[in-house]
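re: ur msg from earlier - yeah i can do the PBG complex, just paste it... oh wait u already did. ok heres what im feeding in:
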Amino acid sequence: MPSANSTSNPLDLVQRPRRLRRMAALRRMVQETQLTVNDLIYPVFVMEGEDKKEEIVSMPDCYRYTLDLLVKEVADAYNLGINAIALFPLVADEKKDNQGTEGYNPEGLVQRSIRTIKKEVPEIVVITDVALDPFSSYGHDGIVEDGVILNDETVAVLVKMSVSQAEAGADMVAPSDMMDGRIGAIRAGLDDAGYTDVGIIAYSAKYASAYYGPFRDALESAPKFGDKKTYQMDPGNTDEAMKEVELDIEEGADIVMVKPALAYMDIIRRVKEYSDVPVAAYNVSGEYAMIKAAAQKGWIDEKKIVLETLTSMKRAGADLILTYFAKQVALMLK
Ligand code: PBG
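and the outut:
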């Protein structure tokens, strides 16, 4: 015989998960992952000159700035609550060579930018990229010999770059090159030069990805021959990511990174479960471009997609997210 209750509970369920989704306040109470401005790192592009900004064609609303304008952009970001920037330079072709010499020029664009930013916005964490590609005539992350990217010779240059960036005032250096042994060598080089407090964010699990295309447009740094598959990782691999992370932590990485993010959420999760240092994920240029393009077509709701995407990266295990959406998100979260 049906009880009075069975009309309102025909399935006779004890557990009804929808109870916790009934009202906005309840949903907020049980939300597990919340994106905050503290999770964000803002990658920025700097170029030579004065009073100029150029939109990157494949990255709408994202610009290369001359240093004077970049300082304003960085100050804006800091005022919105963003704690850190990652700095990338556009280097003139005539300054590029196979050894990436311009990368450790004390008067180079990167070094001048660090000094100026640390003077004008001293509280923001300045993270610098360590790799040869923006400075390389071949557009590769290392020194090229007979079509091969040399490991140990490249690492020696990476150490010089890191020390030079630390000297200019970088708070953290971020080797994105994927050479073997570079984290240990850079840690030793920084320590020997007295920069024991300069940290290392290691691009540990960095995949050979087509998602970097727009970034290479931004820096005019696409490889002149071949691809990056002899140093960046195969998208089909997971165990290899763990090996890289393990080595980087052993060698002294303060933070490890998975890159790209969106197509590599499983890697973020696995690294997070293993790692006892914070995990960063890089929401790379191609991921940015896809969202922007679809939004410009009116096919998706940009703001909602951005928040959902970054929240998912955090849910996957990212403690920090490098994203070109950083300022936009900081505004949305206000
Ligand atoms: C270079 C570097 C790349 C990115 C960051 N550092 C490109 C590459 O490895 O070719 C990509 C960032 C992005 O796509 O947003 N070492």
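cool cool. The first helix runs from residue 4 to 8. ping me if u need the other ligands too
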